Amino acid sequence: MKSLPLSVSALVAALGTAAFAYTITGTVGNEAGNPMSGVAVTLVKENKSTVTDAFGQYTITEETSPAALHAVASAQGFVSVNSGVLSYRQSGSAPVQVRTFDAMGNQVFSKTLYGSGELDLRTGIRAKGTYFAKVTMGSARQDFRFFADGKTVRQHSGEAVALMKDAQAGETLRFEAEGYETRSIPLGTLDTMVNINMEKKSSEQTYAFGYAMGNAPRKSRGCGKNPVLEGTEWYQCSKKSGYDPSWPNADVDCSAQLFSINVNGEKRIFYVTFPENYDKNKPYKLLFANHCMGSEANHMATWVAADRDHLSPYYAQKAQDTEGNYIFVAPEGNTDGWPWSTGSDKDHRFFSDMLTWLEDNYCIDTTRVFATGFSFGAMFTNSLSWEFQSRIRAVAVYATAIFNIYLPKDGADRSHNPIAWMGVHGKQDGTCPYLTNERGPGARDGALIEILKNNSAEGKKAEEETPDEFNGWGNGHVCYDFKDVDPRFPVKWCSHNGDHHWSVTDDGDHTHSWVPGEVHKFFEQF
Fold first, then answer.
1. CA dist., res. 383 & res. 413, Å (int)
2. What are the Cα distances from residue 110, in Å, to 92, 116, 121, 163?
């Protein structure tokens, strides 16, 4: 907006019939970016409205008459500049803020004055040249341009501008159209351009907690950002681990990227595999694969088929994602002698910060975040399901337990909210028992029951429901879907006759495991 070094009386004389105090313009489009006509646009605090035209364009202005400008002058006073000296007059004692800038926009001086008086605008200026002063008095603002030698510059275009009107605290520009979500854009100034796209309203039911099945995606803050698809850390994509004896040879997938973040002063690493042709505007599902004891995140992210306990990448979930709808993550938990922390929430904080970092930098569907793991990885995954019900939609745990792992306590950490949950467990498991024994609470009558207590449908006690189980000899499995749970928080329990492993089969060949497909179907139902 142009400005004049005039007193209010001179300004009124130059205005003639009218002057604009502010102008807000812009365009409104639909989800595809096509212009939308008839959208109601309201400047809320000013109580001014308009509608978009056939080209999706709108304008809201305030036209100030000379009489109105005189009213402003008498109510708020006036400012003028003569030979580089600012004079300000007012009837009250409102603060008068003065800031000067050089021609490059760098601030060279700032001062808040009160009442009435004068100020040499050359204060703080050491070099000759053109400078700009912004003077604010109450809700009015005026800009001046001057030379450092004291000679003021007057406009010769014949145009004049009223004192600009500041946006009121909390001012918003609201956009409304039938069938579309209302949008409100906060404004810091009333002289601006705002271009937006509207999104259609969702017909899905809303709830106090959780989402409807098949809900529309919720985009994370990272949507629209240009992503960093190369890791910040270097790693060697290797067929064998550093353990002795080495794991069996395995084909590898070296597409994962290695990143690190700082969590309470500690460097934590995690691998990420992005879909080919990543689209910064498409909200992707997110799956975390938590490694077991004796394994590491690198194995989860790179090994294709090592042995029955380390089928990967990401517990073979990457192979299930034939349409490229997922981003996969493998966190590294080996930090204090255990695969995951047994006595503190340090790994929960790591997960929270890692998830936030991913949502801030990449386009994630925040309503479709999943986690899975085997053995100690299952124990950590299950532990997460006790605290992060509002951020994780569903988990799948293979051979889990609720001992020798940090578990959130009742109160601030454990909310007892429901979460979708799937368990796969061998009835002959001697490491993480199927039923309670001297080693600790069993998976079926411990971890599973804890989830069912939270997921019961209204008027039901799902923890009292008896699941069908595999009771035969040899290979085979039975998967049971609980009936007395809230349908939005399904619980599936799969039992088999095997021991402590996860890539269970019905024919003895671990590469034919039915588990990855069942887990993928469980996640995809949302």
1. 11
2. 21, 17, 10, 20
How is residue 384 written in tokens?
Answer: 């997460």
* Domain's final residue, options 144, 165, 186: 165
**Measured distance CA(494)–CA(515) in Å, rounded:** 9
- 506 in the same domain as 398: yes
Residue 1 is classified by DSSP as -
In terms of average pLDDT, the best of 8-12, 138-142, 391-395 is 391-395
Cβ contact 497:473 at 8 Å: yes
Q: What is the pLDDT of residues 340-373, one digit of tens each?
A: 999 999 999 999 999 999 999 999 999 999 999 9
Which of residues 473 and 150 earns the better pLDDT score? 473
Region class of 306: left (phi > 0), else alpha (psi between -120 and 50), else beta = alpha
Shared domain check, 447 and 343 = yes
Contacts with 208 (C-beta within 8 Å, 6 or more apart), sequence order: none
**Residues with Cβ < 8 Å from 10, sequence gap 6 or more?**
80
CA distances from 318 to 190, 253, 375 (A): 50, 11, 20
pLDDT band, very low/low/confident/very high, at 3 (cuts 50, 70, 90)? very low
Instruction: Give me the number of domains the chain comprises.
Output: 2
DSSP 447: I
| 3-class secondary structure per residue, 192-225 | EECCEECCECCCCCCCCCCCCCCCCCCECCCCCC
The helix (run of H) or strand (run of E) holding residue 28 is: strand 19-29
| 85 contacts 99 by C-beta, under 8 angstroms | no
Rounded Cα gap, residues 416 and 166, in angstroms: 48
In a domain, 246, yes or no: no
| Burial per residue of 333-355, b for 16 or more beta-carbon CB atoms within 10 angstroms, e otherwise | bebeebbbbbeebbbbebbbebb
Look up the CATH number of the domain holding residue 470: 3.40.50.1820
Of 165, 194, 227, the domain-final residue: 165
Buried b (16+ CB within 10 A) or exposed e, 211-232: bbeebbbebbebbeeeeeeebe
How many residues comprise the chain? Answer: 526
Q: Provide CB contacts within 8 A for 32, sequence distance 6+.
A: none
The least confident of 66-75, 385-394, 405-414 is 66-75
Q: State how far the Cα of 435 lies from the Cα of 266, in Å rounded to an integer.
A: 38
**Contact by Cβ (8 Å): 279, 474:** no
Strand 257-263 and strand 266-273: the pairing is antiparallel
The pTM (predicted TM-score) of the whole model is: 0.67
Rounded CA gap, 177 and 399, in Å? Answer: 51
Secondary structure tally for the chain: helices H, strands E: 8, 25
400's tokens: 């889990």
| Per-residue pLDDT at 233 exceeds 70 | yes
User: With contact defined as beta carbons under 8 Å apart, do 291 and 330 qualify?
Assistant: yes
Residue 195 belongs to some domain of the structure: no
What is the predicted pLDDT for the residue at 157?
32
